[in-house]
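Following the same procedure, backbone shapes were mapped to integers, yielding the entry below.
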Amino acid sequence: MFKKLKVLLLFLPVALHGQIYFPNNESTQVQTTKNQAFTNCKVYTGNGQLLENATILVSDGIIKAVGQNLSVPKNYLVEDLQGLSVYPSFIDIYSNFGISKPNSNYRNSPVYDLPAKGFYWNDNIKAHQQGVSLFNFDSEKAESFLKNGFSTVVTHQRDGIARGTGTAISLLLENSAKRILNPKAATFYSFDRSAAAIQSYPTSLMGSIALLRQFYNDALWAKNNGIQDADLQAFNEQLSLPKIFEVRDHQSALRALKLQQEFGFKTIIKTSGTDYLIVDDLKKAQTAVITSLSFPEAYDVSDVNLANQIDFSDLLYWNQAPANPATLAKSNIPFAFTLADLKKADEFRTNVQKAILYGLSPDQALDALTITPAKLVGLDSKMGSIAVGKQANFIVANGPLFTPETVWYETYTQGVPYVLADRKQIDIRGTYKLSMNNQEFTVKITGTAAAAQSEVTDLAGVKYNSKLSYSRDRLQLLLKPADSLTTNFNRLSANVVNAENIAGTAVLLDNKTVPFSLQKTAAAEKATPEKAPKPYEVLPARFPNGAYGLTNKATKEDVLFKNATVWTNEKEGILAQTDVLVSNGKIKAVGKNLAAGTAKVIDATGKHLTSGIIDEHSHIAVSSGVNEAGHNSSAEVSIQDVVDATDLNIYLNLSGGVTTSQLLHGSANPIGGKSAIIKLKWGEDAANLLFPNQPGFIKFALGENVKQSNWGIQNPSRYPQSRMGVEQTFAYYFDKAVAYKKEWADYRATKNKGLAPRKDAELETLVEILDGKRFITCHSYVQSEILMLMNLAEKYNFRVNTFTHILEGYKVADEMKKHGAAASTFSDWWAYKFEVNDAIPYNGALMHKQGVLVGFNSDDAEMSRRLNQEAAKAVKYGGVSEEDAWKFVTLNPAKMLHIDDRVGSIKVGKDADLVLWSENPLSVYAKAEKTLIDGTIYFDREQAEKLRLQMHADKGKIFSQLLEEKNKGMITIPPKKTEPKHYHCDTLEP
């Protein structure tokens, strides 16, 4: 617990024993002293230190001395705290106290541009905003903080992406002059749009990340260049301030850290309470967190059918969240608590106690509320511990601070007390004889000294309804027979001078006033110690933390497949009864009778071994928006920023033999965002899913979606609105890119360099296309537009890499072959909207016969699990050979993605991305039995069954815990079903 100190703490250099006389020529009235001495108390100074029988000397709200055996100067008002304990009061550095959220500026018609007028071009950026200018002291909310032991908050407007500065506030109810401790204590950020923003951009998480990245670049560019922009200037002035970044989940915490680290910014992450899932990352980043004390409520699982609808990840969160603070502490990650996410402020003490029950020590809890938040925002020289020179911010209590039975008496803020309970109040607990109006009753007063309760019976044992109020030695008791229908009560009141005999007056039901007396007949019964609560078993975190998550991540191993039918996708074709040796994540050998050495041997007799399926067009594993629809060009955004490593579709795709997917931006705008090529390494984080050294790709789009034909907007205003306008949009942006490229070339060629051009992330991407460093995958349907884009590309001297969907590709296959464009199409989709009326299932085969590189993609989370069957349709529709049909979902998409030197076929030296099938992979009866990526088995059908059974067993454990919660009388909430979001090309965020 606390280490006892036997030494005195140093005094400030003031003469405590001297007395200075000043003549008084103004008044003879008594002056209120500002000097206070708190004596005979246990002082928990902070940092795990305890002073027994100590004294605290306070002058004008500042601690002048603290220690043992101190003499109290004559001009100090003494508060004897015999038997009581003093702790540092609390600090919440993530609050919106006294600052209201702006009103929503939602508009039916989209707004794309906004006159800057000296501010940044996007109104979600509010770096110029100062919390101190928005602040209005709210006495009622201040009291709510004070009741919970808080003396200080850092408050800001919890709205927008760049939110400006927050202000450190002392929660003084009266002395407004001393409230502002630091007008600019920290700067605040998030990925969330402002409620007040009227601009459509950003509409997605990746748009928010791109906007912040561009803002940071603009600010650093403008720093020494005299750019007149209030937000950029404010940002640069705030560079030295602590940066606090709010996120909604653990994956976005990693995104925020990555973005901030790009620019060398040290950041405090305000998390959602799932920090336990990324403790290793937080520790590696050496970052501090502000964590939630809002624990999920228990579900009512008494109805079996409803209970089974609860997502397993939600059940795990309920079970694991209370242990989150302890996990942070064990990992030595600095963290602070906040009230920000609590539904009710009175949940605070209960939830701190719950965190302690689940392994957090009381010392660690105290640090998370005192010295740690003080240090994080540079207030530790003023508060956070009880020490000389710091503000007299402390809590007076009658025992260990976080135990349920401890009474908190006062919260002191700069020496000013806020009374929570009267510590001098007479304890009236016990049994009394009540005499009133010639009647006698037995009154038993129980509860706590600060919150007494009453039980009343008459001499015959008949119970009376009663309600006792007792505060500041004033007793009030309402009393009436339990079976009475009257709404009136006998009203008793008395000033308590002596707990043995209490006398007062009663107003009876007939409004007659009579005296009454309470004579104590027995002392209060010693409360039977309640059985100490025990925490529920906390289930281990999974990777990811939901269905089919792994308690231990998959590991690489050497493997020898024996006697398989091997589909090489190379000149060797399909090899019967062949062995494949995998070593160190690579294909080491292909042949017959290979020696296993130390490799694990898998008997593949009668089975088929192929390279992993590659889905060239997918939208699985994307967080918070597949479209950035706020502009007609969003080349600055990147799916790589928003890969969702927890998406169950990763595992489901593995079960269908998929090992690599290109995650594409949607088709909401002509120029979409950059893609992410991922390997489906189930259990790894987003960074480890990214295909290493992947080539750059970007999504373009043509047709109905980009001209907003199907958006349902009453007054569409974004250009383009026609197919002709789509072409002009491309030309406009590539002309800008050509000019941008020249501007930079001229600057680099100049010896006496002046102001550097502004770095524009959008145009940087388009220049990469012009330079052949980034490749286009274009959403397309109609032949006229396909020809248009190829002609436009040739005008700017680049080529369209891949047309996706391309359902009229059979009409222009010769031109595509000449241009060098590949085709990633559907096997047999047609007539699902007007612009695909001419689609035919023979499309893929016809393009293939013209020499076009053809692949089949899914564009759908469900279809991607059976791309092997989609490939088989090329045999049915057009007579493509089985080998070539299989290449439609393996080698050909690898070539489209420029990764065929590493994946797409079974060849010595390539990545061991392999699938073992129960039979011919083109059969509807084929099942993927094992799926390997880089030599690691990420899907095993037998293991999948074990994971399913373990999940059901763990669900049963949690259901038992939830039922126990309900039986204890705890509040429960109805089960809710979390529907997974499946993205398609045209999906827009609400």
Notes: The first strand starts at residue 3 and ends at 4.
